[in-house]
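Course exercise 7: structure representation. Students receive a sequence record and must write out the corresponding structure in token form. The form below is the worked example handed out in class, using Cytidylate kinase (221 residues). Read each field label carefully; the graders check that inputs and outputs are placed in the correct fields and that the protein name is recorded exactly as given.

STUDENT ID: A-19
EXERCISE PROTEIN: Cytidylate kinase
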Amino acid sequence: MESEFVITIDGPAGSGKSTIAKKLADKIGFLYLDTGAMYRSVAYISIEYNRDPVEVASNLDFEILESKNGDKFIANGTDVTSKIRTHEIDDKVSKISSIREVRKHLVKIQRKFAKNKKIVIEGRDTGTVVFPDADLKFYLDASIEIRAKRRYNQKNEKKLTNDSFSLEKIKNKIKKRDNSDKNREWGALKKPDDAYVIDTTSLSKKEVLKEILSYLAEYEY
Ligand code: DC
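STUDENT ANSWER:
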């Protein structure tokens, strides 16, 4: 049986956690789990098929497949990669992820996914609620300006969606989502007390990864 080693990375939208978590997992040969993509999948499926989000979360079948064009997110057998990154889902996901029963089901799936594995898991509550005893925890943050810029570039340059918004509008939407992610009753975005905090505002991806690897060097995994 493989021994478990869990690294959690939490932080607000645009802090760089998805990119860094993926790069870190690839570099050290760990599995990678983007929990935000799970909440987004529940939001997408419940809106698209007019289903109860709690029921969708209760039997969500979720996997991440690697492909040469980047990771593909598969929910209930369907490729939802581009469908979960629209502005509509950005707007609705925070409300759906504040439903206690939705969180309960997804947290259970996340724990099962990581059982006896070496994994990098990222989201909002992975170091506080999902894995309070994780081996190593990080909390990434950055200024609102740079986070909005990153999201803007991500959406417009990579053409993840067909709907485009101005930088200012994205900034306001992120502020609104931050507010509801930080203030919900269950699984709120919060820095774990025992996390290493990295401000990524003026750091490149390479520099953030280097910093994380320097902490990791002290561990056997
Ligand atoms: O990281 P992201 O932007 O893809 O996350 C989308 C939303 O999902 C975010 O606004 C809050 C929610 N989320 C959550 O509630 N808990 C997590 N562990 C991860 C994401």
